[in-house]
Each structure stands twice: as C-alpha cells, then as structure tokens.
From TrEMBL:
It holds the Pfam family DUF896. Transmembrane segments: none annotated. Its main location: cytoplasm. This is UPF0291 protein JOC49_001948. Belongs to the UPF0291 family. The keyword Cell wall biogenesis/degradation does not apply. It comes from the Bacteria.
C-alpha cells in the first residue's frame, strides 16, 4: 500500500508541473512515484476481484 506522504508528493508534483514545470530530477521522481502508485492500485484491485463470489439466484 502506498502511504499518504507519497500521495501528497504525487499531487504536489502534478500541481507544480501544471503551474511552473518540473526539473529533470522531479520528473524522474514523479515517474517513479506514479509507477509505485499504479502497482499498488493493481494489487489492491486484483485482491478485490479475487474476493468476489458470484451467487446465482435459482
């Protein structure tokens, strides 16, 4: 799971990119953080799908 601190950093970098632009180091950091976030999202989503039970009404 990705922490709130990392989510805040992702949001900060996204806002900064829109307003004033990012340095090369910040662009690299943003890419790494986004990859971490997407991996955590995919794992969580897969876990949710694995816990779904389909019940047929007969």
């Amino acid at each position: 799971m990705i922490g709130q601190e990392k989510l805040d950093r992702i949001n900060f970098l996204a806002q900064k990119k829109k307003t004033e632009g990012l340095t090369d180091a910040e662009k690299s950091e943003q890419e790494i953080l986004r990859k971490e976030y997407l991996e955590a999202f995919k794992k969580n989503f897969r876990r949710q799908l694995d816990n779904i039970d389909i019940v047929y009404k007969d």
